[in-house]
Design a protein that fits this description.
Blueprint lengths: L2 H27 L1 H6 L46 H9 L15 E8 L5 E5 L11 H12 L7 E8 L2 E5 L22 H14 L4 E7 L32 E2 L2 E2 L3 H15 L3 E2 L4 E2 L5 E7 L3 H11 L2 H14 L6 H14 L23 H13 L36 E7 L2 E9 L5 E9 L4 H17 L3
Parallel strand pairs: 4-5, 5-8, 5-9
Antiparallel strand pairs: 1-2, 1-13, 3-4, 3-10, 6-7, 11-12, 12-13
Length: 473
């Protein structure tokens, strides 16, 4: 055997040994294996560069479909940008589309805070008084849940002043339906049909087969229409009433006589159950013993539903119920006074803020991005208010956010951000909560006023949320 033939196997085995040794060293640096072998200890300095096992960096965000440039870079684990850096990322988002009809730039504001500490993570224009649109509901529901336990229910009842006469009494149930929902539906509100069946059973048991019908909707004395709302908003909100069915919706739109319409429907249902109603329903005061009732869903479910559907009528009714619960008249003025009182008590009311309704249809409302973000933070830290979070849609998944957050800059928020939207002409807002790339929980609010391109304004608010969600902050 020659010297060369002996050397070749030796060299091969040396090479194999070197490879195995290198693999073992690398494996030891992988935390689970090294720890299981007892070769690591807490507090020991790292002997491998942090980048050794780091995933490759994600590509930079691309331009969104709206042409709004993405300036946010993906979070780098372990690197925490300061507030100035995050604000710069948001400010660098293209706003070419957010220009008013007069050529002036739209007003924009954002505010993000750490839920656990209250530290401000990003903020610009946060104290400017701007129109919040439907994010008014964020403030209203916080005020409502600060007063109610959440388990209260509002009853729709039937009383009998004397034999042969009954009165249908509205209790301000915003979700009262004409017909029962399916047994497995959620939410499953009370219905006039169920009330009619219970009423007929009591009347027939007492030998009464015909009655006259009165209607009492005086719990809310009116007016049912807010003077600050334009007339063309009547397709967005029903004239408020303590008694309606299906939110006063009719085949031709929304009723302006919701209580009488509900009573007429109730009379027809009584007839189907074997009790004839003589004559049309007429206004009457409540008196006599209660003979039947149905109760609303608990307040916390009403709040959740109002937020999830961004329902103006439901929220206005909740505002009136709040007014009553705080000893005020059930009027628009009483409702907004009660909201301000509760927000002030919670430290959430900023000087100069104005509310003229509870739902956000009013263009006279003025609040700050700071108020909205702080209200969301309060929802997350106060168990009594946390039920409101159940009504917040999830970005790109549910409710009013289902078809949003589609461009590359906003995409990090999909499935992570939960937020309330606000939209009027020239107004877009977004307020909610997110987990950041490094698992920090933040509350945030973004508001745009004065942008005639409403779609671009919404895209921009989504992109701001995407920047905040993707930051390591």
């Amino acid at each position: 055997m020659t010297r060369t033939s002996v050397a070749r196997p030796v060299l091969a085995w040396l090479l194999v040994g070197a490879i195995l040794a290198a693999a073992f060293v690398v494996a030891l640096y992988r935390e689970p294996l090294a720890a299981s072998a007892g070769l690591t200890r807490d507090g020991a300095p790292s002997t491998a560069p942090p980048s050794l096992f780091a995933p490759p960096p994600s590509p930079e965000p691309q331009l969104g479909d709206a042409g709004l440039a993405g300036a946010a870079t993906p979070a780098v684990p372990g690197i925490v940008p300061g507030r100035a850096a995050l604000d710069a990322r948001i400010a660098a988002l293209g706003r070419a589309e957010l220009v008013g009809v007069d050529g002036a730039a739209a007003q924009v504001a954002w505010h993000a805070v750490d839920v656990a500490t209250g530290d401000v993570v990003a903020s610009s224009g946060a104290d400017a008084l701007l129109i919040p649109a439907s994010n008014t509901k964020t403030l209203t529901t916080v005020a409502v849940m600060n007063v109610f336990s959440g388990e209260e229910r509002f009853a729709t009842t039937v009383v009998q002043p004397e034999p042969g006469r009954i009165v249908l009494v509205g209790g301000g149930d915003p979700l009262l339906a004409a017909e029962p929902a399916a047994p497995d539906a959620y939410p499953r509100p009370a219905s006039l049909r169920e009330l009619a069946a219970a009423t007929a059973a009591t009347l027939l048991a007492g030998g009464q087969t015909s009655v006259t019908l009165g209607v009492d909707a005086g719990l809310f004395p009116g007016p049912g229409w807010n003077d600050v709302w334009p007339a063309n908003y009547r397709d967005q909100v029903t004239e408020l009433s303590a008694l309606w069915a299906d939110e006063g919706r009719t085949g031709s739109g929304r009723s302006r006589t919701a209580a009488l319409d509900a009573a007429a429907l109730f009379a027809a249902q009584l007839a189907e159950a074997g009790v004839t109603v003589v004559g049309p329903p007429v206004a009457a005061a409540r008196s006599g013993a209660e003979i039947a009732r149905v109760e609303s869903l608990p307040v916390h479910v009403l709040v959740e539903t109002a937020m999830q559907r961004s329902n103006n009528s439901f929220t206005e009714v909740l505002g009136l119920q709040l007014a009553l619960a705080t000893g005020r008249p059930a009027t628009f003025a009483g409702a907004v006074a009660a909201i301000e009182e509760q927000l002030t008590a919670l430290g959430l009311w900023d000087a100069g803020a104005v509310l003229t309704d509870a739902s956000g249809l009013s263009r006279s409302n003025r609040v700050t991005a700071r108020m909205l973000a702080d209200a969301v933070r309060r929802m997350q830290t106060d168990p009594r208010l946390s039920v409101i979070l159940d009504g917040l849609p999830t970005a790109g998944v549910t409710g009013t956010l289902a078809d949003r957050f589609t461009d590359a800059v906003a995409e990090p928020a999909r499935g992570v951000v939960r937020a309330k939207t606000g939209t009027l002409s020239l107004v877009a807002s977004l307020a909610g909560t997110t987990q950041t790339a490094d698992d920090r929980e933040l509350a945030f609010a973004v508001v745009v006023n004065g942008a005639p391109n409403g779609w671009a304004a919404k895209v921009w608010t989504d992109q701001v949320a995407g920047v905040i969600a993707s930051c390591g902050c």
